[in-house]
Design a protein that fits this description.
Number of strands of chain A: 11
Oligomer: homodimer
Structural class of chain A: alpha+beta
Largest interface: A-B, 67 and 67 residues
Strand content of chain A: over 45%
Number of helices of chain A: 3
Protein backbone atom coordinates (compact mmCIF):
# COMPACT_ATOMS: atom_id res chain seq x y z
CA UNK A 1 0.00 0.00 0.00
CA UNK A 2 1.57 3.28 -1.16
CA UNK A 3 0.75 7.00 -0.93
CA UNK A 4 -0.69 8.87 -3.92
CA UNK A 5 1.59 11.04 -6.05
CA UNK A 6 0.62 14.72 -6.15
CA UNK A 7 0.79 16.01 -9.75
CA UNK A 8 -0.75 19.48 -9.41
CA UNK A 9 -2.43 21.80 -6.88
CA UNK A 10 -4.89 24.61 -7.61
CA UNK A 11 -6.20 26.76 -4.73
CA UNK A 12 -9.93 27.50 -5.01
CA UNK A 13 -10.17 29.27 -1.63
CA UNK A 14 -7.13 30.85 0.01
CA UNK A 15 -8.48 32.76 3.01
CA UNK A 16 -6.90 33.06 6.48
CA UNK A 17 -9.54 30.72 7.99
CA UNK A 18 -9.91 28.24 5.16
CA UNK A 19 -7.95 26.91 2.22
CA UNK A 20 -9.53 24.64 -0.39
CA UNK A 21 -7.29 23.01 -2.98
CA UNK A 22 -8.07 20.92 -6.05
CA UNK A 23 -5.32 18.31 -6.28
CA UNK A 24 -4.46 16.19 -9.28
CA UNK A 25 -3.18 12.84 -7.96
CA UNK A 26 -1.78 9.64 -9.40
CA UNK A 27 -2.78 6.47 -7.56
CA UNK A 28 -0.44 3.46 -7.17
CA UNK A 29 -2.57 1.58 -9.73
CA UNK A 30 -1.86 4.29 -12.35
CA UNK A 31 -5.32 5.88 -12.19
CA UNK A 32 -5.26 9.70 -12.18
CA UNK A 33 -7.80 11.69 -10.15
CA UNK A 34 -8.12 15.23 -11.56
CA UNK A 35 -10.06 16.79 -8.71
CA UNK A 36 -9.39 15.50 -5.21
CA UNK A 37 -10.40 18.40 -2.97
CA UNK A 38 -8.41 19.04 0.20
CA UNK A 39 -9.20 21.42 3.05
CA UNK A 40 -7.16 23.32 5.56
CA UNK A 41 -8.24 25.31 8.63
CA UNK A 42 -5.88 26.75 11.27
CA UNK A 43 -4.75 24.37 14.01
CA UNK A 44 -6.67 24.72 17.26
CA UNK A 45 -6.51 23.45 20.82
CA UNK A 46 -9.14 21.57 22.82
CA UNK A 47 -9.06 22.59 26.48
CA UNK A 48 -10.04 19.91 29.00
CA UNK A 49 -9.99 22.11 32.11
CA UNK A 50 -11.02 21.02 35.57
CA UNK A 51 -11.56 23.16 38.65
CA UNK A 52 -9.95 22.49 42.01
CA UNK A 53 -13.28 20.88 42.99
CA UNK A 54 -13.05 18.44 40.05
CA UNK A 55 -15.71 20.01 37.79
CA UNK A 56 -15.20 20.38 34.03
CA UNK A 57 -15.33 23.89 32.64
CA UNK A 58 -17.80 23.92 29.76
CA UNK A 59 -19.08 26.54 27.33
CA UNK A 60 -22.29 27.28 25.50
CA UNK A 61 -22.20 29.24 22.25
CA UNK A 62 -23.83 29.50 18.83
CA UNK A 63 -22.19 27.41 16.07
CA UNK A 64 -22.97 28.53 12.54
CA UNK A 65 -21.98 25.15 11.04
CA UNK A 66 -24.86 23.39 12.77
CA UNK A 67 -26.91 26.57 13.32
CA UNK A 68 -27.38 25.61 16.97
CA UNK A 69 -26.36 26.63 20.49
CA UNK A 70 -23.85 23.97 21.52
CA UNK A 71 -22.49 22.62 24.79
CA UNK A 72 -18.73 22.23 24.34
CA UNK A 73 -15.37 22.33 26.05
CA UNK A 74 -13.50 25.60 25.59
CA UNK A 75 -11.30 25.63 22.48
CA UNK A 76 -9.48 28.12 20.33
CA UNK A 77 -7.17 28.73 17.42
CA UNK A 78 -3.44 28.64 18.19
CA UNK A 79 -1.85 32.01 17.39
CA UNK A 80 1.44 32.36 15.53
CA UNK A 81 4.47 31.91 17.81
CA UNK A 82 2.31 30.22 20.45
CA UNK A 83 2.42 26.60 21.64
CA UNK A 84 -0.77 24.57 22.08
CA UNK A 85 -0.29 24.81 25.87
CA UNK A 86 0.08 28.61 25.76
CA UNK A 87 -3.01 28.93 23.55
CA UNK A 88 -4.98 26.70 25.94
CA UNK A 89 -4.13 28.87 28.96
CA UNK A 90 -4.86 32.09 27.03
CA UNK A 91 -8.19 30.88 25.64
CA UNK A 92 -9.31 29.48 29.00
CA UNK A 93 -8.74 32.93 30.46
CA UNK A 94 -10.33 34.84 27.56
CA UNK A 95 -13.36 32.60 27.03
CA UNK A 96 -14.11 31.48 30.59
CA UNK A 97 -12.01 33.53 33.07
CA UNK A 98 -10.25 30.63 34.80
CA UNK A 99 -6.55 30.34 35.55
CA UNK A 100 -3.81 29.41 38.03
CA UNK A 101 -3.67 25.68 37.17
CA UNK A 102 -2.05 23.10 39.44
CA UNK A 103 -0.95 21.05 36.41
CA UNK A 104 -1.03 21.00 32.62
CA UNK A 105 -0.70 17.85 30.50
CA UNK A 106 -0.35 17.66 26.71
CA UNK A 107 -2.41 14.67 25.52
CA UNK A 108 -1.66 14.64 21.78
CA UNK A 109 -2.76 15.89 18.37
CA UNK A 110 -5.32 14.61 15.86
CA UNK A 111 -6.02 15.30 12.20
CA UNK A 112 -9.37 17.14 12.02
CA UNK A 113 -10.51 14.66 9.38
CA UNK A 114 -8.03 12.27 7.72
CA UNK A 115 -10.08 11.95 4.52
CA UNK A 116 -9.34 15.33 2.89
CA UNK A 117 -8.40 17.73 5.68
CA UNK A 118 -4.87 18.98 6.36
CA UNK A 119 -5.50 20.80 9.69
CA UNK A 120 -5.15 19.34 13.15
CA UNK A 121 -6.14 19.95 16.76
CA UNK A 122 -4.26 19.46 20.00
CA UNK A 123 -5.62 18.22 23.32
CA UNK A 124 -4.49 19.80 26.58
CA UNK A 125 -5.63 18.80 30.09
CA UNK A 126 -5.44 21.64 32.62
CA UNK A 127 -6.19 20.61 36.20
CA UNK A 128 -6.99 22.52 39.38
CA UNK A 129 -7.92 25.94 37.98
CA UNK A 130 -9.85 28.67 39.80
CA UNK A 131 -12.01 31.60 38.67
CA UNK A 132 -9.74 34.57 37.95
CA UNK A 133 -9.98 37.88 36.13
CA UNK A 134 -12.42 38.67 33.36
CA UNK A 135 -13.38 37.19 30.01
CA UNK A 136 -12.35 38.97 26.82
CA UNK A 137 -14.34 37.96 23.72
CA UNK A 138 -13.68 38.61 20.06
CA UNK A 139 -16.31 40.80 18.37
CA UNK A 140 -18.04 37.71 16.94
CA UNK A 141 -17.99 35.67 20.18
CA UNK A 142 -20.70 35.35 22.82
CA UNK A 143 -19.81 32.54 25.21
CA UNK A 144 -21.43 31.33 28.45
CA UNK A 145 -19.31 29.32 30.88
CA UNK A 146 -20.54 26.65 33.26
CA UNK A 147 -19.13 23.92 35.51
CA UNK A 148 -20.17 20.30 35.14
CA UNK A 149 -19.43 17.03 36.96
CA UNK A 150 -17.81 14.19 35.02
CA UNK A 151 -20.93 12.04 35.56
CA UNK A 152 -23.23 14.70 34.13
CA UNK A 153 -20.93 15.25 31.14
CA UNK A 154 -20.97 11.55 30.26
CA UNK A 155 -24.76 11.53 30.52
CA UNK A 156 -24.87 14.41 28.03
CA UNK A 157 -22.46 12.61 25.70
CA UNK A 158 -24.70 9.55 25.80
CA UNK A 159 -28.00 11.39 25.25
CA UNK A 160 -26.53 13.58 22.48
CA UNK A 161 -26.76 16.96 24.29
CA UNK A 162 -22.99 17.09 23.89
CA UNK A 163 -22.41 16.26 20.22
CA UNK A 164 -19.02 17.66 19.13
CA UNK A 165 -17.26 14.50 17.92
CA UNK A 166 -13.73 15.96 17.75
CA UNK A 167 -14.03 17.13 21.34
CA UNK A 168 -15.50 13.76 22.39
CA UNK A 169 -12.44 12.02 20.94
CA UNK A 170 -10.14 14.33 22.92
CA UNK A 171 -12.09 13.64 26.10
CA UNK A 172 -11.91 9.88 25.45
CA UNK A 173 -8.13 10.19 25.03
CA UNK A 174 -8.11 11.72 28.52
CA UNK A 175 -10.27 8.83 29.83
CA UNK A 176 -7.84 6.28 28.37
CA UNK A 177 -4.84 8.19 29.79
CA UNK A 178 -6.28 8.02 33.33
CA UNK A 179 -6.08 4.21 33.59
CA UNK B 1 -27.93 33.80 22.83
CA UNK B 2 -29.43 33.77 19.33
CA UNK B 3 -28.56 32.25 15.94
CA UNK B 4 -26.96 34.37 13.22
CA UNK B 5 -29.11 35.69 10.36
CA UNK B 6 -28.05 34.50 6.90
CA UNK B 7 -28.04 37.45 4.45
CA UNK B 8 -26.43 35.90 1.37
CA UNK B 9 -24.79 32.67 0.12
CA UNK B 10 -22.24 32.31 -2.69
CA UNK B 11 -20.97 28.84 -3.69
CA UNK B 12 -17.22 28.74 -4.34
CA UNK B 13 -17.07 24.97 -4.82
CA UNK B 14 -20.12 22.95 -5.85
CA UNK B 15 -18.82 19.44 -6.56
CA UNK B 16 -20.52 16.13 -5.71
CA UNK B 17 -18.02 15.45 -2.90
CA UNK B 18 -17.60 18.96 -1.53
CA UNK B 19 -19.48 22.22 -1.35
CA UNK B 20 -17.86 25.41 -0.07
CA UNK B 21 -20.06 28.45 0.49
CA UNK B 22 -19.21 32.04 1.43
CA UNK B 23 -22.02 33.22 3.69
CA UNK B 24 -22.83 36.80 4.63
CA UNK B 25 -24.23 36.74 8.19
CA UNK B 26 -25.65 39.23 10.66
CA UNK B 27 -24.80 38.56 14.29
CA UNK B 28 -27.22 39.27 17.18
CA UNK B 29 -25.04 42.29 18.14
CA UNK B 30 -25.59 43.83 14.67
CA UNK B 31 -22.10 43.04 13.37
CA UNK B 32 -22.07 41.72 9.78
CA UNK B 33 -19.56 39.07 8.67
CA UNK B 34 -19.09 39.16 4.88
CA UNK B 35 -17.22 35.90 4.46
CA UNK B 36 -18.06 33.09 6.86
CA UNK B 37 -17.06 29.95 4.93
CA UNK B 38 -19.15 26.80 5.34
CA UNK B 39 -18.41 23.30 4.12
CA UNK B 40 -20.48 20.32 3.12
CA UNK B 41 -19.46 16.74 2.35
CA UNK B 42 -21.88 13.82 1.80
CA UNK B 43 -23.16 12.09 4.93
CA UNK B 44 -21.36 8.87 5.78
CA UNK B 45 -21.68 5.96 8.19
CA UNK B 46 -19.17 4.67 10.72
CA UNK B 47 -19.36 0.88 11.01
CA UNK B 48 -18.52 -0.60 14.42
CA UNK B 49 -18.63 -4.26 13.43
CA UNK B 50 -17.77 -7.18 15.68
CA UNK B 51 -17.26 -10.81 14.73
CA UNK B 52 -19.01 -13.71 16.46
CA UNK B 53 -15.76 -14.13 18.42
CA UNK B 54 -15.93 -10.54 19.71
CA UNK B 55 -13.17 -9.03 17.55
CA UNK B 56 -13.55 -5.60 15.91
CA UNK B 57 -13.28 -5.49 12.13
CA UNK B 58 -10.71 -2.86 11.20
CA UNK B 59 -9.26 -1.52 7.96
CA UNK B 60 -5.97 -0.12 6.76
CA UNK B 61 -5.89 2.25 3.80
CA UNK B 62 -4.13 5.33 2.45
CA UNK B 63 -5.72 8.67 3.40
CA UNK B 64 -4.82 11.58 1.17
CA UNK B 65 -5.81 14.18 3.80
CA UNK B 66 -3.04 13.09 6.15
CA UNK B 67 -0.93 11.43 3.43
CA UNK B 68 -0.61 8.31 5.58
CA UNK B 69 -1.75 4.70 5.79
CA UNK B 70 -4.36 4.70 8.56
CA UNK B 71 -5.87 2.12 10.90
CA UNK B 72 -9.62 2.77 10.97
CA UNK B 73 -13.04 1.21 11.34
CA UNK B 74 -14.81 0.57 8.04
CA UNK B 75 -16.90 3.54 6.88
CA UNK B 76 -18.59 4.75 3.75
CA UNK B 77 -20.76 7.34 2.09
CA UNK B 78 -24.51 6.73 2.30
CA UNK B 79 -25.99 6.38 -1.19
CA UNK B 80 -29.21 8.08 -2.26
CA UNK B 81 -32.34 6.18 -1.17
CA UNK B 82 -30.32 4.22 1.39
CA UNK B 83 -30.54 4.34 5.19
CA UNK B 84 -27.42 4.54 7.36
CA UNK B 85 -28.04 0.93 8.41
CA UNK B 86 -28.30 -0.27 4.80
CA UNK B 87 -25.13 1.62 3.85
CA UNK B 88 -23.30 0.08 6.84
CA UNK B 89 -24.21 -3.47 5.79
CA UNK B 90 -23.34 -2.77 2.13
CA UNK B 91 -19.97 -1.15 2.92
CA UNK B 92 -19.01 -3.87 5.42
CA UNK B 93 -19.55 -6.39 2.65
CA UNK B 94 -17.81 -4.36 -0.08
CA UNK B 95 -14.80 -3.18 1.96
CA UNK B 96 -14.22 -6.16 4.26
CA UNK B 97 -16.36 -9.12 3.12
CA UNK B 98 -18.25 -9.72 6.35
CA UNK B 99 -21.99 -10.22 6.75
CA UNK B 100 -24.84 -12.19 8.37
CA UNK B 101 -25.01 -10.09 11.57
CA UNK B 102 -26.79 -11.28 14.71
CA UNK B 103 -27.84 -7.72 15.57
CA UNK B 104 -27.64 -4.14 14.31
CA UNK B 105 -27.95 -1.06 16.54
CA UNK B 106 -28.18 2.56 15.39
CA UNK B 107 -26.17 4.67 17.89
CA UNK B 108 -26.78 8.19 16.60
CA UNK B 109 -25.52 10.95 14.32
CA UNK B 110 -22.90 13.68 14.74
CA UNK B 111 -22.05 16.86 12.87
CA UNK B 112 -18.66 16.31 11.21
CA UNK B 113 -17.49 19.63 12.68
CA UNK B 114 -19.97 22.06 14.26
CA UNK B 115 -17.81 25.13 13.53
CA UNK B 116 -18.42 25.53 9.78
CA UNK B 117 -19.38 22.11 8.45
CA UNK B 118 -22.90 21.12 7.37
CA UNK B 119 -22.35 17.38 6.83
CA UNK B 120 -22.86 14.62 9.37
CA UNK B 121 -21.99 11.00 10.05
CA UNK B 122 -24.00 8.17 11.56
CA UNK B 123 -22.79 5.44 13.91
CA UNK B 124 -23.99 1.86 13.51
CA UNK B 125 -23.01 -1.12 15.68
CA UNK B 126 -23.20 -4.48 13.88
CA UNK B 127 -22.60 -7.48 16.09
CA UNK B 128 -21.86 -11.14 15.43
CA UNK B 129 -20.81 -11.04 11.77
CA UNK B 130 -18.89 -13.73 9.89
CA UNK B 131 -16.62 -13.73 6.84
CA UNK B 132 -18.78 -14.01 3.73
CA UNK B 133 -18.38 -13.44 0.02
CA UNK B 134 -15.85 -11.17 -1.60
CA UNK B 135 -14.78 -7.55 -1.33
CA UNK B 136 -15.65 -5.13 -4.13
CA UNK B 137 -13.58 -1.92 -4.16
CA UNK B 138 -14.10 1.32 -6.04
CA UNK B 139 -11.35 2.08 -8.59
CA UNK B 140 -9.65 4.43 -6.11
CA UNK B 141 -9.86 2.09 -3.08
CA UNK B 142 -7.26 -0.36 -1.80
CA UNK B 143 -8.30 -1.61 1.62
CA UNK B 144 -6.85 -4.28 3.92
CA UNK B 145 -9.11 -5.81 6.58
CA UNK B 146 -8.03 -7.17 9.94
CA UNK B 147 -9.58 -8.30 13.22
CA UNK B 148 -8.61 -6.73 16.54
CA UNK B 149 -9.50 -7.31 20.20
CA UNK B 150 -11.11 -4.47 22.16
CA UNK B 151 -8.08 -4.32 24.46
CA UNK B 152 -5.66 -3.94 21.57
CA UNK B 153 -7.85 -1.28 19.94
CA UNK B 154 -7.87 0.83 23.12
CA UNK B 155 -4.08 0.51 23.36
CA UNK B 156 -3.80 1.84 19.81
CA UNK B 157 -6.18 4.70 20.61
CA UNK B 158 -4.02 5.61 23.60
CA UNK B 159 -0.66 5.41 21.80
CA UNK B 160 -1.98 7.29 18.73
CA UNK B 161 -1.73 4.44 16.19
CA UNK B 162 -5.49 4.85 15.79
CA UNK B 163 -5.96 8.59 15.29
CA UNK B 164 -9.26 9.21 13.49
CA UNK B 165 -11.06 11.47 15.98
CA UNK B 166 -14.53 11.23 14.42
CA UNK B 167 -14.32 7.46 14.56
CA UNK B 168 -12.99 7.58 18.14
CA UNK B 169 -16.04 9.62 19.16
CA UNK B 170 -18.35 7.03 17.60
CA UNK B 171 -16.53 4.23 19.39
CA UNK B 172 -16.79 6.13 22.70
CA UNK B 173 -20.54 6.51 22.12
CA UNK B 174 -20.66 2.72 21.88
CA UNK B 175 -18.60 2.41 25.12
CA UNK B 176 -21.06 4.73 26.93
CA UNK B 177 -24.04 2.82 25.53
CA UNK B 178 -22.74 -0.50 26.94
CA UNK B 179 -23.03 0.58 30.59
Amino acid sequence: MKPWKLLDTEYLVNAPWLKVAKEKCELPNGKVIDDFYTLWQPDWVLILARTKEGKWIMTEQYRHGTGKIALEFPAGIIDKNETAEQAALRELQEECAYGFPQSLTYLGAYPVNPDRHRGKFHVVFIDGVVRAGKTSFDESEDIESLEMSDEELRKKMLDGTFSHPLQMAGYFKWVLSQK
